[in-house]
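In line with agreed milestones, the collection of sequences with tokenised folds has grown. A representative record is reproduced below.
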Amino acid sequence: MEKESKKGKRMTVDELAIITKNQFDRVDERFDSLEACFDARFTKMEHTLQTILDVVLEIPSKKSFERLENRVEGIDIRLTSVERKVKTLGK
């Protein structure tokens, strides 16, 4: 099967197949480069998401803050009591 080109020269099926294969090879190369670019971006995004997750998991819960606040208040009360005793003993 032959196809007539604009210049009047006939193209054989083999020539058309070679041209088509070359075009597909170029498209494959382009997709490979795009895929590599996307892989790099997704890897970077995965790393960023992992960092965010690590930070979120390290943030103490509200209950932890409340327990810590209660301990600080308890220590503060004891410290105030000791300060009063020291002042009374010093007089």
About this structure: The CA atoms of residues 31 and 37 lie 10 Å apart. The longest strand covers residues 2-4.
